[in-house]
Amino acid sequence: MKYLREKDINGFIMTTKTPINETSSGEEQYKGIALYARKKLCQEPSFFSVGTDKSHAFSYMYGEINVDFIDEDADNIATYGGNVVWNNDEMDLLKINIQEIIKAIGKDWKKRIEARKKEITKKWALMCMIGIKNIQLMRKSLQRALQI
């Protein structure tokens, strides 16, 4: 985090309620983290070599990070645009810090999903118990009514 503050790196990474897939018109929605330098896209959305096959969180994750410093001294952006040139120590350090953030958000997402699943399971179990009690009460009432 110290590195991020020193380099004045800011932005957001969020997770959505539903997976980020294609839109109804067939257009690909962005998933991944995009980098911007001086308000211009300098890295297409990606997960910076974090193993996306290990978690579903990446299907729900999008972000934009401002990294203005990367274009101040050395030219770290490919001339055709859209990609950072990751061939020096400074860019490696940036990548490592972004990877750490992505992993932390992925772990947090997984914890929240697991907690939500447990809560849903508890509510379902409670609804079933209430339903069983209601069925038993209805059965007793019906038996009493038939005896009269």
How does the SSE layout of this entry go?
Elements: H1 2-6, E1 10-15, E2 32-37, E3 40-46, E4 61-66, H2 89-147
Parallel strand pairs: 2-4
Antiparallel strand pairs: 1-4, 2-3
Architecture overview:
- The protein is an alpha+beta fold and 148 residues long.
- The protein has one domain.
- It contains 2 helices and 4 strands, in the order αββββα.
- A 4-stranded mixed β-sheet has the order 1-4-2-3, covered by helices on one side.
- A hairpin with a 2-residue loop joins β2 and β3.
- It is rod-shaped.
- The termini are far apart.
The number of distinct helices, counting runs of at least 4 residues, comes to: 2
Strand content: 15-25%
Query: How does the major sheet shape up?
Result: 4 strands, mixed
* Total beta-strand segments: 4
Low-confidence stretches: none
Specify the structural class: alpha+beta
Rg measurement, Å: 25 Å
Mean pLDDT over all positions: 81
Tell me the number of structural domains. Answer: 1
Helix/strand order: HEEEEH
The 3D shape can be described as: rod-shaped
Strand order of the largest sheet: 1-4-2-3
In short, what is this structure?
This protein is α+β, with helices and mostly antiparallel strands.
Any descriptors?
alpha+beta, rod-shaped, 2 helices, 4-stranded mixed sheet, 148 residues, 4 strands
